[in-house]
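This section describes the prediction task in plain terms. A model, or a person checking by hand, is given the sequence of a single protein chain and must write out its three-dimensional structure as a string of tokens. No templates, partner chains or ligands are provided. The sample shown here is typical of the held-out split.
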Amino acid sequence: MARMGGRRHLKALAAPAFWPILRKEHKWVVKPSPGPHPIERCISLLILVRDILKYAKTGAEARKIIAEGHFKIDGRVRRNYKYPVGPMDVIELPKTGEYYRVIPVPTKVLDLLKIAPEEARIKPCRIENKTTVRGGHIQLNLHDGRNVLVKVSDPRNPVEDVYETLGTVVISLEDNRIIDYIPPEKGVIAIVIGGKNVGRGGRIVDIIPGALKRRKYIVTLQDKSGNLFQTSFEYVFPIGKDKPVITLPEGAW
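The expected answer:
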């Protein structure tokens, strides 16, 4: 396996297969900075601007317009052309009034989907871990690197702690407030963010426990056509109870 971590530079041939780059034209490619998303599940802002949005023809042009502050990620201007952009991130172009969400899709793994301004105010975030902090409060560690504190009134009986790892909290990007919670259980709608079924959506119909960690449990999902498919629990991203809370590509659900 090609080495992608631990160095500042990345060869084009060693980059993740889903990056839309010309691997034999240039030896090197822009490596995302360490940040909220792992390299195998993100893409640098420069490649997104130049190769996906097509707002620049060269890396130098892309670096210039990024440095000028023309792109917002999750409501914040990002001027670092190496900034890692990953699943469920919201990209805003203030001058054109365009909004996009980074969505898992088949084959491409990650792509941009145009969304309405109202939807750009929210973001589903999967709970990767949870810890108890001082005062008995609960801290949720989310997939995009952010942490959310859930305050409890009685640490000995934390009734406010209804959250499970691998579940999804819907966050308001304006104030980082939790506005909804989607548990990782049978009956909810989820999208696959990795593996051979990446980008497929369906309703969870079964969760098969195993001897390994919970993340390695096998989950069976059913798409709108009634087809069943399976994937690992670590690739399942809940996105709705009765219907998805975000817009999905046509055919995903």
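For orientation: The chain is about 5% helix and 35% strand.
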